[in-house]
Queue: 2 jobs
Job 1
Amino acid sequence: MSLLIGSITIGLILALLALGIFISFRIFDFPDITVEGSFTFGASAGAALIVAGVNPLVASLVSFLAGMAAGAITGVIHTRFRINPLLAGILVMTALYSINLHVMGKSNIPLLSETTVFTWIENLSNRVSGIDARTIIIGWEVATRDLWLLMFCFLAILMFCCILWWFFKTNIGTAMRATGDNDQMIRALGVNTKWMIIAGIALSNGFVALSGAMLAQYQGFADVQMGIGMMVWGLASVIIGESIINDRSVGMVIAGAVIGSVLFRLLVAIALRWGLNPNDLKIITAVFVFIALILPGLLKYRKRLTLKRGAHA
Amino acid sequence: MLKINNITKTFNPGTVNEVRALQGVSVEIEEGGFVCVLGTNGSGKSTALNAVAGAFIVDEGTIKLDGVDITRWSEHKRAKYIGRVFQNPFSGTAPNMSIQENLALAMKRGKTRGIGWGLPKSLVGDFKRLVKPLNMGLEERLESPMGKLSGGQRQALTLLMSTILKPKLLLLDEHTAALDPKTASKVIDLTQQVIAKDRLTTLMVTHSMQQAVNLGDRIIMMHLGKIAYDFRGEDKKRLKVKDLLTLFDELRRKDNIDPSVAALLEEYYI
Ligand SMILES: Nc1ncnc2c1ncn2[C@@H]1O[C@H](COP(=O)(O)OP(=O)(O)OP(=O)(O)O)[C@@H](O)[C@H]1O
Ligand SMILES: [Mg+2]
């Protein structure tokens, strides 16, 4: 059970990543691989600042801004220099690898003995419920502290979802969605689509970096490798969410991304529990996303086949 | 109002694919003028409209709108003064957004878009009132996504969106060409109403000579990136489809002869 609670908590933290991918991939149809670098960038910047004694909330905010800067650079490379989205992302991701090493000074920063956002929550839990308190839910005993962490992540994610939903309903957010939907149309309505893409990819990477910073604080370390495979991971979350919630309105897709992220993390935890080799995790994620991407086409094809057969019979 | 002075545009200059799409086009349209643009395929009609709309910057020449030189302005900056409807019904609307969201986007054409609510409740009533005269039953479907509508419905809405804030100039590029005849004539009726109501200055490209004869107060015929004929006032009113056909044939016949030979012949015979 405590494994379950931990998985849901991590799923909620990675939901920030899924929200970022939702912005780049679904709103702008922009396959942005910058996230693999900016996820680590957020983690490394946050960790380095926390080690330097900066307030962990401020450090997380700086991580968000750092991710936005990285995304903005990808956006500029793509819009101003007309480099295709994938290549623009690869350039920034590669550059970020060196930057991350510089920011951390080494390939790994432990945070276990530092004060993070989660230490605050643990302290709060200890003060309110007592040290080492246990709670029984549906017959299982879990550490009350873990429930506090879960609640905190849930509320934080809820807040970010509301902000994001509100943003995409404002005038500028609506124009952003239109940019991804039909850029010619929205340009004819007076919107600078280049700026919209730059701002959107920046926002996306801000969320991704924040996700990295939170994960580093939760697991107690930042590592230069931790961004690898994160784009596909986020994509898997978004796709799972979309298949569960069959509604394409902004609010529903945002909710779907969060639910997808938590479910995907749970699935992975269960698979690992059942003896899946952790080394195989990434290939399985990749195959899963591949299938999810081609499935709608396959279903349509099968439907056509059966229709044809029906016509022949 | 609109003053185009000797603009040129060459695509892919210096390559085998070089196309001199505009070769010195000059035209002046007064306020409230409604100009139909005719011409053979590839004569540069769309390119001329795109040059005015700012899809690209012209190589030479100037474009002035209401006395302001907009030659070097970006497309989105010009959009503040220019409304557009495209040939492709899918080009003018955002398919995954609702009808009312599309209309709300159009209400902000050329204005700064801040963090105010994108679709205020107060606007929905206005939208219903605006959409009703289209007689397409869309007032009951404002929340459905644009992508679910037919080409004709989308084109009618694009027309509405481009004129919802009165533009200084309306550009229509064969906006009925992709529609079936019945829908096309409906959209043409709407076009006429909108233009008449607000006395909009309009440039309309069309392939239908009947349309050109029936509508507007001036006909420009383009050929090989230049303006070949320009009829206005009484001349335009007298013009029949038959006359236009004759002119087209004449242009085609000239085309088949080498330009230098044609010039020689002209000198001899005219
Ligand atoms: N973006 C572009 N790149 C290269 N060539 C172009 C481009 N746009 C137009 N052209 C060429 O410029 C010429 C004029 O094209 P344009 O689209 O203006 O013709 P048109 O008069 O609108 O024709 P139609 O009646 O077929 O729409 C054509 O030869 C076309 O191939
Ligand atoms: Mg054309």
Job 2
Amino acid sequence: MTDATAPGAVPSGAGQGSLLARDTRTAKRNAAEGRFKIYGLVAVCIGIAALIVLLTSILTSGLSAFRQTTIDMQVTLDEERLDPSGARDYDEMARVTTFGYAPLLRDGLQATIAAAGIEADLDPGDAMDLISDESIAQLRNRVLDNPDLVGQTIDLTVLASGRIDGFYKGRVSYASAELDSNVSPEQLRLAEALEERGALRTGLDWRFLTAPDASDTRPEAAGLGVAILGSAYMMLIVLVLALPIGVAASIYLEEFAPQNRWTDLIEVNISNLAAVPSIVFGILGLAIFINFAGLPQSAPIVGGLVLTLMTLPTIIIATRAALKAVPPSIRDAALGLGASKMQSVFHHVLPLAMPGILTGTIIGLAQALGETAPLLLIGMVAFVREYPDTPLDGGFFDPATALPVQVFNWTQRSDPAFVERASGAIIVLLAFLLLMNLTAVFLRRRFERRW
Amino acid sequence: MNDMRHVERTVRVDTTKITARDVQVFYGDTHAIRNVSVDIPDKTVTAFIGPSGCGKSTFLRCLNRMNDTISVARVEGRIEIDGEDIYDRRVDPVQLRAKVGMVFQKPNPFPKSIYDNVAYGPRIHGLARDRADLDGIVEKALRRAALWAEVKDRLSAAGTGLSGGQQQRLCIARAVATSPEVLLMDEPCSALDPIATDQVENLIHELRENYSVVIVTHSMSQASRVSQKTAYFHLGELVEYGETGQIFTNPQDERTENYITGRIG
Ligand SMILES: Nc1ncnc2c1ncn2[C@@H]1O[C@H](COP(=O)(O)OP(=O)(O)OP(=O)(O)O)[C@@H](O)[C@H]1O
Ligand SMILES: [Mg+2]
């Protein structure tokens, strides 16, 4: 009552005059607000434009990685060549190298050309260059896996070679073929003739996602299978280790630890760790996990551990922020009812902090998924063609690569077809990131029950 | 203030529930409570009055050791409940708080359903044998807090979705549901309309049958209506403590008189 201001005490100037006319101060404030909105809008537009440019460039050069040119043919698996002894003995048959299989495919292709009625002025060896070398190895593996195929004539869809594939993806033209020692215009003409007769097609092919990496000269066969598995294994390790450790550490520091110099020190250290360059974690991993603990190189377990160390600070900082944001009155309410500290945290504080914790975790995981530098140091850049085993069979210890490392690896190679592969790998990486973010949004929605 | 309707002024001075001796509370360097000694009898309503910032809430929080949760707070002196020193090293504050319930100055319902808010205490203390039992406890608590009629059809709705006054009554129901022996209420009616206030005051009367209730209030009329004993705090000191009737009609200290006659605060 006593502190009610007397009318006379209102400072004159403000709020006097007509409300219909805008005074100069209001006009100025509105102008400032308008300017600020424009700055913000410009910043947002620049960001969106950059994003659009980035995405279009990646999509235009990378989407074709999911399409593949293939040739249909019939191949007679000649017993004379493949299993002279006739015993179908694996070791015996394995002696026949890809050189033994190449003539079969060559003959098959010639037969296809003849059946299509194409007059090719190419000798069979040059025509054979239409087919990827990888296909010969694939045929050999297939026969070794099913010895019963020997002696039969089978329908086969083989990969076209990189240059022919490139011809259908706009990388190779008649003009460039003139100058290219790897492909000739005649071969391109033959490919077109085969396409007209329906023997050669370019279509959607998921082998890019499942096949392992291939050598420098076979970009058409290079796939992401091993890299996706490696990345998935590492994410699994990071999630299983970093989430519980990070959340437990944050809960302890935020809710239980006494506030003293030690906890201050730990806090500063965690914040600093989050800013340590990732390559330093790679060196740490190399020194501790490989040199000291003797874990194998190139293995997802080492990569996972290194990425866990890297992700922990992110998760801890996000979790602590989420815990701090829970109003203290909620803790008081629980404690006041005779709940223990642990009950108040687990029944009330943690559920409220969950959306923040999940967001932080997924941001940390996304960071880890895209991390390249530390993985280079622990040998995950190696050329790995063998799929790692399932985790139950010790797959975490088998050599593997990771998606971002595969991108790095492919961009180092000379054949321009690998640009397409690398862009394709980036698309896959982005798709996984998008998936993770969607999961984060979904989980947040689930936990953020509006009360 | 002259409304002294149904107050029993006779205090059965049989037992003392809470004894405080030379209690000092510091928040860092701030000396918030100075030398407070008080005997709070069982089965009575004791009102703490005094100007804002004089330490009523602080002293109230000493009685269930809620000050332990404030890292800068330090409590000295001796506080006994039923003759046991609650600041003894062997005392678990968690056990103490189940015995000494509290309604906070600001309503702080859990962001859970109305039912879960009230059921939380009985659940963690294992007070209900089965679901039906728990339902009964919840209903009884909500009835006592004069909230049942308003929420009985939406027990699964969010407790935070209630109005401020309803939230405060929900917090009262929540505190009552654990059947504490002492109930500390920090301005429980500050957000309530006269009707709900009346209902809460009736609840306090009812609680007095079994419990000892300590209530902080800024409303002198409320203090005189509900309490048998009144303590007047001023700048961290307990200035005067005695029968409510005596404090309001014949205060011994000048500061008390100034306060209750509206000359300060
Ligand atoms: N958490 C805290 N940290 C530091 N000082 C505090 C804290 N809580 C209260 N104080 C101080 O202690 C003194 C007493 O505060 P308290 O909350 O007990 O007052 P009050 O009598 O309940 O006032 P009100 O009637 O406004 O609720 C005040 O000077 C206040 O500034
Ligand atoms: Mg207060």
